[in-house]
Predict the structure.
Amino acid sequence: MCLFSGAVSFAQTQSDSLRVVLSKKDITPAQRVTALSMLAKATSITATDQAIQTGVQAVQLSYALPDAQYTAIAYAMLAQVYLQHDDISKAAQAVDSAVYYSGKTSSSLAKGVAWYRKSWIENVKGKSKEALASAQQSLKYLDAEGLTSWQSSVYYIIASIYANLEDGPLHKKYAQLSLQTALEKGDDDNLLCAYQSLGTYWQYNHLHHTNDRASLDSALYYNRLAMQTFLERKNSIVFHSTMAIVALNTADLFAQYFPATYRDTVFYYLDYAQRIGAETHHVEVVANCYGMKSDYEMAAGNYDNAAVLLQKGLAVVSADSAKNLATKMQFMAALASLAEKRGDYREALQYFKQHEQLYTDLYNEDKMNMTKELEAQYQAEKHVMALKALQQTAVLHKRLGYLYIGLTLASITAAFFVLRSFRFRLQLAEKAKNDAALLAQLQQQENKQLAMEKQEAELQALLKNEEAMRLLAEQQLMQERQDRLQKDLLAGTLQVEQKTELLQTLQKKITENKHDSSVLNQLSRIIDNDKRVDESLADNKVGLDDIHPDFFEKLRERSSNALSKLDLKHCSYIFLGLTNKEASQKLGVAPKSILMSRYRIKQKLGLGREEELDNYIRSLS
């Protein structure tokens, strides 16, 4: 508690120094714009209206500078002042302008600051995903610029986003990065924010791990570091409201995790937070202080004291320029609950009705804010489009000027060539007439030459066609002769094979039956029968000649060489159209054997039961 023995006062060191700089006449316009923006930030807590005027002045002066980076940064600083004035709509417009002008400069610092403010305003609106994306974009630009105090601010925003998302590890990571950067750059405001963020992380951690005493000690440790930093460097710290938040968090730690005997300690920190909150116009902090005090009184059964505290808190909130509807709703709910505990149900109902009316007003305000935000976005986009249109018009006028100059020069050049060409026009006309006559003569000669060449080509084509037809006729005649010879050879071969078999059979019979007259008579009949077969073969020779030369080759391929010579003869007789009886006579076998032979041939050829052997063999021609 001895840390707060000194009274809280706001030294004007930073703002006074900036005013001294602005009083000098030899500073450049860029330096003046920068100093005005920083002064607007430094006075945004104690003199918000004056800070807005200063920020607007910085923006207006920046328009005259050739580099848009000063305009982008001036708008980014002005956005923070507007938010301090609880004008989120104008703050959002200023952020949009900062991003727009950052796109018209090559300054990485201006781009990084503008995108940081974009992340900051998106986080205020509760757009966590968009805020994270904008913060990462800001870090890319700032890292290219080198280490600045702005990186610490960006890390603090990212830590806050992850705190709202209840992502403890990332909350801790970026809070530590914010602290490290603030220590390296010696930025007291960022240092205070980093301590506050780490204290909040450990407070949340202890909330989920109540048995972990170390997390509670860590939360108190970082809060004490923040308090010590504030007391030692408060003259250089602009946003004292951060200290009010730290004191309120410390009071909450003692209230939740320490015995009731620590009540005086809780009230001490609440008084300190309430005092700083009132001086910095931080209504939310003041309201929370009254609310926590009333909770203590209510727990002790001091309902009247609790009601007085709630009414005081409600009065502070109602006196603020902002509506603070959500905070008022909390007070109405607390007053309704207190009245119910006191048994005054009529008063409880009255507070509850006021709570419901505030809820309706809050809903309507949200709709109105959304409408205003959309309108502001539309106006911003409209403004950007208007600027782009003006720029495009200027570029167009410039290009038209160049075009007019070019057209004038082209006209002069064209006139010169027209006059010059007129002198040669008559000469060219006469020359063209002579050339035309000569060309006509050449054309006639070429036509005659082409006609002769065409006649010669037709004669050549006719001769080639006749020669081709003669060669084709000779080839056909030779092919017919070759086929006829092959067929004669096939027929002769069949006849020789049949004769050879017959002679072998006769020789064998004669040798076996030399003295048997009946056998000799039988042999005589066989010879007579063979003569008749020769006569029949002569009659059918023309049909046998029609057998295709590849006939037997196809049969061998289909049967995989399983057909015997006798089978092949039988197939040739079938192809020639002989009946089973005629085939049996030629082959010298009984008609029944012919049927068995046909069955074996069909099997060797792999034919199905429904397939006809005669049709298949005749299809091989």
